[in-house]
Structures are given as C-alpha cells and as structure tokens.
C-alpha cells in the first residue's frame, strides 16, 4: 500500500510542483521582510511594545509578565534566533487565521459540508505532524518556507473549530434582529454575527498562536535556519543539555507571554489606559537610543550562557555519581512494567529479571482466576465488565505487541458494541482492518503498547492528583500553575529533561509522553469531581455519608463523563507526542513516520500517519461512546 501511494502521489506532485515552488518563492518575501523588521527593531523598543500591550490588555500583571519574558530572551543570548522564530509565527498565524476562518464560515453557511469539515478537522488534528511534512518537503523544497506552511496548516483547525462554535452559539434573537434590520446575508454575517462571536473567535486566535509556536522545532527539522528551534535540535544532538534547556526555556517564555496576552484579548473586560501604554513605548524608545549608544546588541548579551554551562557541568557530575541509581529506576520500570505490557508475562518473566520462569500452569491459573472473577461480576448484572476480565487476562499474558489480529479486531468490535452499538462496532473493526491491510500492523501494535502504557500511567497518577486537588483547594493552587506551564510548553521541549537523566531509549520516550499527556487527566478529574450539583451532595450528607462515601458513591459517578473526556484528551495527547518521542528511541509507527521524512518516502509517511490517526480516532470514538452512555444514565 505504501508503494502504491508513493507512486501515485509522486506523479501527482510532479504535476503541481511548479505552482507549489512559485508559492514558496512568493511566501519567502513577507517572511524575509518580517525577519528584517524584527531583527532591526531595537530590542528595548520591542520589549516596551510587548510590555505596553500587556498593560493595555491586562494591567500590571500582564505588563510585568511581558517585560520579564522578553527580558529573559534578551539575557539568554538567543535574541536573533528568537526574532527569526517570531517572524515564522508572525507570517504563518495570519495564513492560519485566514484559512481557518474561511473554513469555519463555509461550514456555517453551507450545512451540507459541515460534517465533512468536522471530519477533516478531526483527521488533521489526529494525523501526526511529521506525516504531512514529507509531501510538503517534496512540493515546496527545503527551507524555512516549508516550516511556515506546515505551521499554518497545523494552526488552522483550532481557528476553524472556534469560528464554527462561535457562530453556532449566537442567540436566535440577535440573528432575527439582523434580518429585521434589512441586512443581506453578507451584512448579517460580517456586521452582526462575527462581532457577536468575537470572544469565541479570539479563543481560536489564542489556540492558533500556540499551535504555530509549538511547530517551531518541528519546522526546524525540515526547514532549519538560524532560529530557536534549530538551536534546540542542534544542542540536543550535541548532548549540550544546559544550552538545550536554555533555548527550550526561551520558547516557553514566548509561549507563556503569547498565551497570556492573547487569552487576555479574548476576554471581555475593560482595557487599561492607552496613555499608560504610550508612556511605556516612549520609555522603550528612549532606552533604545541609550542602548544603541552604550549597550551591545541583544545577541551579544549572553548573560545566561554561564548558567547553562554551569548546569551542563553539574548535570555531568550528577549523572556520573548517580548513574547506577538512574539505571536501576529505568531497568525496574522496563523489566517489571513496560516489557510485560509489550510481550506479556510469558515472555517477560525470566529468571534473571523476576527470579523465576513463567510456566504454562501459571497461564492456566491466571485465566481460571480471571474467569472466576468475571463470572462473579457478570452474575451481579455487569455482564460487559465480567466478560472483559478474561480478555484483560489474555492481554496481560500475551502482551499488547504480540496480540493476534483476530483477537484485536473482535475485541475492538465488542468494546465498540458495548460503548455505542452496531455503528461504533462496525467503525472500529473497519478502521483497524485498514491498518491490518496496510502492512503496518506490527508497528501499530508497538505504538499502541507504548501510548497505552503512558495513558494508563496518566490515568492512575493524573486521576489521583485530580482527586487530591478536588479535596484540597490548597493542593489545586499548587498544581494549577504547574498544569498551566505544562500546557504552554511546546512538545519538543519535553524531551530535554528526560534526556538529561535517562538518555536515549524507550523509557525516556515513555516519560516524555506522560509529562505532555497527564495534564488533561488532572484537570478533567478535578473539574468533574467539584462540579457535582450541591443538592446531590446535601442529600448524601443528610443520609449520613462520610466524605469518602460521598466522593465514591455520588461525586465519582456524576463526574464519570467528564473524567472520560479527560481520558479521551489524554489518549490524543499521547498519540501526538508518540511521533516526537521517535527522536529519542521509540519504535513503531512514530519511527516509520520519522524515517519516511528522512527518506522522502511519501507512501510510507502517509500510510504510517494514517495508521496512527486511525488508532487515535478509534480510541477517541470508543471513549466518547462510553462517556455518552454515562451521560444518558445520569439523565444529562
């Protein structure tokens, strides 16, 4: 299948390549102009402009955040590289907003295409970014413009979704008032409806900005130039983790400043005085003159480089001193956790790891015990849960990566039938059959194993943290800023801390996926548990229930749909990070996608990306099915 797709698309791309290369040349001009403008703007003036915008949007707190964030970039010594990155974002985001906004308006105006647009948005957000970089590379050539186009494509779906959502939520009386005023459809849309949906649309602008910024390192892979993403990649490859962390923190600083200011612009609140903003800009202009006369250029202010060098040295000392302990942690997790999940107990339990050999009678005992437990559960009325026990035992005994394909197809169909009926069962089986026919089944199971292990860990630990935060407001005040920070960090930056301590390998990839995917589980678990209606809690307390009984018997069942939504988001985050983690030692579909990019193999890249998107879509639909069933059971 990969070979057929490669042959067909290569011939098609040869036909449209001249037009694509002309577009690439045309887009290079605004990017070069923006880059020149940002590089030649004195850094005190640019810091002042961001500080003034922060003041106007959110007052002192946002102004201080903008000032400190840009000052950190200046002190890092990466000012020139940061401005190159900002030029990519500054050109790609308007393209994404234009493309996404037009798509959202089209879906709103033509109901027949709305379902198709939503499906395309789902696919675009589940297909790994590396998968569509290969065709872009062949069409537009190597260079920063390819990264610009990839960023625009990646950042368009959030804008389209929010435009659709904003236009859907406009109150009927507003639309009727526009019609009664005699406006034609264009006037109704652009003079009434879009301004009314402005708050939701600004949320889309915020999400598009963050999506484009998260692509800067990925764009550096295919169009590397002297930008901050390339610095992160280069220092990681040289194992200069102090410098890599510093460059990564520059991206984080940009992400936090852009996120907070754009989120403030999305909120309907009173703006602060323009006179104050103009005063800040005037002070910045004066500082720019003084800097031009007395201070070195921003790229020469490497105030934090000694800190990075010191961190490199301390890290080397720490790893050498604690290498045995770090290896012990990694090996314990691999031998007693990840390896059994991958190849099963019958393959992983060996004398040199577990101290004994897994025997046939142990498998028989495992299946007998699971059948007995499942039978007891089924007799209590929970037939589906009872049947799942021997299935789970089979997975544990055999291993996810070693499961026979009929077992997986039948199991997915059965889960789909329980979650959503015949349509969901048929969808699950057909989608997985497509993966089977693609020839990528073994790699798909490896990807399913690693992402499944990470999701299971996130569900356990993220759910526990969310529970603690629901019980303790103090704990939530501590955890919330950590979650906010983790959600603004671009994907690649998560690789840096795990590589510092555990080097390249599957365990490092596993940790990076967890760091990125655990936040939705924490947030949704906590939100679901604290959102229980007060009358239900009062009824439980009046019945004599304790705090824990109220939690398990009232809050948890009511919060189940919300928690399942968090699990759904965690699954999608895990698959998104899986491809990035291929850079540090994973196997499976992520590795195939990355290899396809290096080999310019369109067929392998598209089939591997489609297979991973199918796994994510099937998991998404199954979890949504269970969440919908719980909502129906609760009468929601």
Overview of this protein structure:
The chain starts with a helix and ends with a helix. It is mostly helical. It is built from 28 helices and no strands. The radius of gyration is 27 Å and the shape is globular. It is 84% helix and 0% strand.
Task: Please outline what is shown here.
This protein has 28 helices and no strands. By secondary structure, the chain is mainly α.
Key terms:
0% strand, 636 residues
**Morphology:** globular
Order of helices and strands: HHHHHHHHHHHHHHHHHHHHHHHHHHHH
Low-pLDDT sequence parts: none
Number of strands: 0
What is the topological layout?
Elements: H1 2-40, H2 43-58, H3 60-76, H4 79-109, H5 111-126, H6 133-140, H7 144-168, H8 172-180, H9 185-196, H10 198-214, H11 216-223, H12 228-237, H13 241-266, H14 274-294, H15 305-343, H16 345-348, H17 360-379, H18 383-398, H19 405-420, H20 422-438, H21 441-471, H22 473-488, H23 495-502, H24 506-530, H25 534-542, H26 547-581, H27 589-599, H28 602-634
Helix pairs in contact: 1-4, 1-6, 1-28, 2-3, 2-14, 3-13, 4-5, 4-7, 4-10, 5-7, 6-7, 7-10, 7-11, 8-9, 10-13, 11-12, 12-13, 13-15, 13-23, 15-18, 17-18, 19-20, 19-28, 20-28, 21-22, 21-24, 21-26, 22-24, 23-24, 24-26, 25-26, 26-27, 26-28, 27-28
């Amino acid at each position: 299948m990969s070979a057929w797709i490669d042959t067909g698309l290569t011939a098609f791309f040869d036909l449209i390549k001249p037009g694509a290369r002309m577009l690439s040349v045309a887009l290079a001009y605004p990017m070069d102009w923006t880059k020149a403008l940002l590089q030649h703007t004195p850094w005190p003036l640019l810091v002042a402009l961001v500080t003034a915008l922060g003041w106007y949007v959110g007052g002192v707190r946002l102004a201080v955040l903008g000032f400190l964030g840009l000052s950190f970039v200046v002190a890092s010594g990466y000012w020139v590289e940061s401005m190159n990155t900002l030029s990519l974002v500054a050109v790609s985001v308007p393209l994404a907003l234009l493309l996404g906004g037009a798509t959202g308006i089209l879906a709103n105006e033509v109901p027949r295409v709305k379902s198709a647009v939503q499906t395309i948005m789902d696919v675009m957000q589940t297909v790994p970014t590396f998968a569509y970089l290969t065709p872009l590379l062949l069409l537009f050539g190597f260079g920063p413009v390819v990264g610009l186009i990839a960023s625009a494509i990646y950042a368009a779906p959030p804008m389209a979704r929010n435009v659709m959502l904003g236009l859907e939520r406009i109150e009927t009386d507003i639309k009727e008032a526009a019609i009664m005023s005699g406006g034609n459809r264009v006037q109704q849309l652009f003079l009434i409806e879009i301004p009314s949906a402005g708050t939701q649309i600004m949320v889309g602008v915020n999400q598009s900005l963050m999506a484009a910024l998260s692509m800067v390192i990925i764009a550096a892979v295919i169009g590397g130039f002297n930008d901050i993403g390339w610095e992160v990649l280069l220092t990681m490859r040289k194992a200069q983790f102090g410098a890599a962390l510093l460059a990564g923190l520059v991206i984080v600083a940009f992400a936090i400043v852009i996120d907070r200011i754009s989120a403030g612009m999305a909120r309907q609140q009173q703006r602060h005085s323009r006179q104050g903003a103009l005063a800040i800009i005037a002070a910045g202009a004066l500082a720019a003159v003084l800097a031009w006369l007395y201070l070195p250029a921003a790229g020469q202010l490497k105030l934090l480089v000694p800190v990075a060098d010191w961190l490199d040295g301390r890290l080397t000392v720490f790893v050498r001193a604690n290498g045995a302990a770090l290896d012990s942690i990694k090996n314990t997790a691999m031998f007693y956790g990840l390896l059994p999940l991958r190849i099963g107990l019958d393959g992983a339990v060996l004398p040199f790891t577990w101290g004994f050999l897994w025997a046939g009678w142990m498998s028989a005992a495992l299946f007998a015990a699971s059948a007995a437990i499942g039978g007891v559960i089924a007799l209590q009325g929970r037939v589906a849960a009872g049947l799942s026990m021997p299935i789970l035992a089979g997975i544990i005994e055999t291993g996810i990566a070693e499961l026979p394909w009929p077992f997986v197809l039948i199991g997915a169909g059965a889960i789909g039938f329980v979650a959503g009926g015949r349509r969901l069962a048929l969808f699950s089986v057909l989608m997985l059959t497509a993966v089977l026919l693609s020839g990528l089944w073994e790699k798909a199971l490896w990807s399913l194993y690693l992402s499944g292990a990470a999701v299971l860990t996130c569900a356990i630990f993220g759910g526990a943290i969310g529970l603690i935060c629901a019980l303790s407001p103090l704990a939530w005040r501590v955890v919330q800023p950590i979650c906010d920070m983790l959600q603004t960090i671009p994907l690649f930056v998560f690789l840096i801390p795990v590589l510092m301590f555990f080097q390249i390998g599957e365990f490092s990839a596993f940790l990076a996926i967890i760091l990125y995917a655990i936040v939705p589980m924490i947030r949704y678990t906590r939100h679901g548990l604290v959102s229980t209606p007060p009358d239900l809690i009062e009824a439980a307390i009046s019945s004599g229930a304790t705090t824990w009984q109220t939690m398990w018997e009232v809050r948890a069942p009511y919060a189940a749909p919300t928690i399942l939504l968090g699990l759904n988001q965690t699954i999608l985050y895990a698959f998104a990070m899986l491809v990035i983690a291929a850079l540090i030692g994973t196997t499976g579909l992520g590795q195939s996608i990355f290899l396809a990019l290096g080999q310019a193999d369109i067929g392998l890249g598209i089939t591997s990306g489609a297979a991973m998107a199918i796994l994510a879509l099937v998991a998404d639909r199954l979890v949504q099915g269970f969440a919908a069933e719980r909502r129906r059971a609760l009468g929601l």
